[in-house]
Amino acid sequence: MTGQLTEPALTPTEPRRLPRLVLAGRDVTVATAFVALIALLVVVAALTAETFLTPTNLTNLLKQMVTTGLLSFGMLVVILTGGIDLSVGSIVAFSGIVTAGLVSGLPIPLAMAVGVLSGIAFGVVNGTLIARFELAPFVVTLAALTTIRGLAFVYSEVPIAPEDPGFFTLGSATAGPIPVTTLIMLAVFLVGGIFLTRTPAGRSIVAIGGNAETVRLAGINVRRHIVLAYTISGACAGLAGVVLASRVGIAQPSVGVAFELDAIAACVIGGASLAGGRGSVRATFGGVLVLVLINNLLNLYGVQSFWQQVLKGLIIIAVILVQRTNRVRS
Fold first, then answer.
1. Which of 125, 116, 92 is nearest to 226 (CA)?
2. Where exactly are the transmembrane stretches of this chain (predicted)?
3. Fewer Cβ within 10 Å of end Cβ, the chain: N or C?
4. How many whole angstroms separate alpha carbon 186 and alpha carbon 203?
C-alpha cells in the first residue's frame, strides 16, 4: 500500500525537468535554447528595424504579448492533462463584449469581474463534459468554440465602445515603463508555475497527462482535476478578453478568431507534449516571447498577416520535428 501511495508523488515531478535538445552534438535545455533564440531575434530586430527599440514599440510589444501569454498558460494547463481547449478565442470575444456591455450599468470592476467569471463558467462546463461524460476534449471544445462565438453575437451583433474613460484604465495604466497588464500576465505565470510544481493539485494535473489510471489508483480524483484544468483555462481566457477590450477601447464579437492556435503554438514551441504530461511554464513563456517578437518584427518589415500565419505554421512543424528527433535519439 505504501508503494502505491508514493509512486504517483514521483510521477508529477518528472515534467519539472526542462526538456532537452541536442544541437550541434551538444545537450542543452529548452530554456537555454530560448534565451539564445530570443537574444538573436532582438539583435536582428535592433539592427534591421530602426523603430524596434523605440519606447513606443517596446511598450506596444509588452501590451501585445499579454493576450497570447494568458491564453498560453491556460492552454498549457489543459495540455498537461492530455487535453486541448479550442474555445479560448471565443471566450475572449464573449468576456470582452459582456464586460463592455455591462460598464454602462455596473461599476467597472464588477463588470470586469463578470467577464472573467463568464470565462470560468465556460471552463467548468467544458471540463465537466470532458471529465464526467468522458467526451473527447477536441470535440467538446470545438463545439464550445462555435456555441460561445454565437452567444457573443447574440449578446451584441455590433462592436461596443464604452464611453466611460475608467474602462480604459486597466489597458493603459503603467507601473513605471511597464504596462500593468504585462505585470498581471507575469504574475499569472509566476503563480501558475508555483501551482503546477509545488502544490498537490498542480502536480496531480501534470501526472494525469502522464498516466491517468495510475493517478486514479492512487486515490486522486481525476475528474475533479480535469475540471480544474479547464476552469483555469477559461479563467485565463476570460481575463484576456477583459484586458484586450480595455486596451483597444472596443469589444467586438468577432475578435479572438484563431487565438487558440497562437496559444497552442506557444506551448508546442515551449516543448509541451500534446499527448500530455510534459511541459514547462518557463519554456511556454519563452514560446510566447518568440511568437510575439517574430510578429512584431514582421509587422515592422511590413510583411502581410497571412505570411505571418505561414511562418507560424512552419515554426511549429520545425519544432515538432526537432522534438521527435531528440526523442528518437534518447
1. 125
2. 28-49, 70-98, 110-131, 138-156, 176-196, 226-245, 257-276, 283-300, 306-322
3. N
4. 21
Residue 160 DSSP one-character state: B
Cβ atoms 218, 2 nearer than 8 A: no
Based on C-alpha coordinates, what's the Rg of the chain? 20
CB 226 within 8 A of CB 12: no
Question: Which grid cell sits at 199?
Answer: 502544490
Contact partners, residue 31, CB within 8 Å, separation at least 6:
18, 280, 282, 283, 286
- Tell me the pLDDT tens digit for each residue of 255-304: 999 999 999 999 998 889 888 999 999 999 999 998 999 888 888 888 88
Q: Specify if 6 maps to a domain.
A: yes
CA pair distance 141, 22, nearest whole angstrom: 35
pLDDT band of 30, cuts 50, 70, 90: low
Give the domain extent around 187.
2-11+64-269
Cα separation, 187 vs 205, in Å, equals: 20
For the stretch 107-149, pLDDT in tens is 999 999 999 999 999 999 999 999 999 999 999 999 999 999 9
Structural domain contains residue 292:
no
Distance CA 236, CA 258 (A): 16
142 domain residue, yes or no: yes
Give me the number of domains the chain comprises: 1
Q: What is the DSSP string of 28-92?
A: EEHHHHHHHHHHHHHHHHHHH-TTTTSHHHHHHHHHHHHHHHHHHHHHHHHHHTT---TTHHHHH
Instruction: For residue 306, report the phi and psi dihedrals to the nearest 5 degrees.
Output: -70, -30
293 domain-assigned:
no
